[in-house]
Every structure is written in structure tokens, then in C-alpha cells.
Amino acid sequence: MKLTRFTDYSLRVLMYIGLKNTGRVTIREISDAYRVSRNHLMKVVSNLSRLGYVAARRGPGGGISLAKPADEINLADVIRDMEEDLDLVECFCPKGKCVITPACNLRPILQHALKAYLQSLEKHTLQDLLESGSKLEIILGIKQEAA
Questions:
Q1: What DSSP element (H or E) covers 49?
Q2: Quick check: 146 pLDDT over 60?
Q3: pTM, rounded to two decimals
Q4: Is 24 among the domain residues?
Q5: CATH at 13
Q6: Does any domain span residue 146?
Q7: Distance CA 80, CA 71 (A)
Q8: Which end of the chain has fewer CB within 10 Å, C or N?
Q9: 110-128, pLDDT tens digit by residue?
């Protein structure tokens, strides 16, 4: 299974904000750190804000912060919320037209795999992604490497 770039960026935005953990950050900061499009990140942040993962404020003193503690942001929830669908194959789609669906054993096997995938992610939160904090902070330019 491959996550969309939108979901990938959503997780990266949450990680950056969680690592920064000093109030608000800007989309420009995140864009510069990851070297990704600000316009794309604006859409990502808008969606994260709408869904209650981040709090965004415009204007002077504005920026983005986590709307709840990192240990309360479940990775499976983020992925479910960000992915347009988790239809691995055509027969998962409501309007799928695969001719072998009535006799195919692939669907239940893939459904089981998807369920296991999400159950595994349900055991993890944003906090788990922040455990290698110092290394990530250095890579993203949040913290300077000790001399």
C-alpha cells in the first residue's frame, strides 16, 4: 500500500510542529525544512486544521500549533482522515466492476491485510514519531548540531 503525498506531508507537518514544540510555526518554516511546495502545504494544513489536528491562526503572531498533545494523535486516525480512500483494488470500490469478484479470494485476503495494517498503526501516536527528536531536529534545521 502506498500513501498519497498528501498523507505523507500531513504526517511530516505534524512531526515538524511536534518537534518544534515552542508555540507556533509557519508554513514557510515547514516548507523550507522539507523543501516542499508552500502551496501544497497550505492545503495540507488547512485540512489538518479542519479535522482538529492543528490550530492555525492568521496574521501577526499567527502560525500553526498542535491542537492536542502528540500522544493523543493516533497515526491510524491521521491516515484514515487524510487518505481519500483505502481501496487497495477495484473490488473494494463501491462501483468496482471486476468480473471475478464473485469467485475471487483476493478481496478477503487484502481486507485482512488492510485491517492488520491499520491495527498496527492504531498502536502508535505522533509521539512515537518524535522519539528520535534530536536527530530529526538537526536534519530539519530546528536545532544546531553540538560543536
A1: helix 38-50
A2: no
A3: 0.85
A4: yes
A5: 1.10.10.10
A6: no
A7: 17
A8: C
A9: 889 889 999 999 999 999 9
For residue 21, pLDDT over 80 is answered with no
Give which of 4, 6, 46 is closest to 27, Cα–Cα. 46
> Does residue 102 belong to any structural domain of this protein?
no
Residue 114 lies in a domain: no
The predicted model gives 28-39 an average pLDDT of: 94
Please work out, in degrees rounded to the nearest 5, the angle formed at the alpha carbon of residue 120 by the alpha carbons of 142 and 54.
Answer: 40
- The crossing angle, in degrees rounded to 10, of helices 75-82 and 106-122 is 130
Distance separating the N- and C-terminal Cα atoms of the chain: 41
Domain that includes residue 38, residue range:
5-85+126-139
Cβ partners under 8 Å of residue 14, min gap 6:
48, 53, 54, 66, 70, 73, 78, 126, 129
Q: What's the total number of domains in the chain?
A: 1
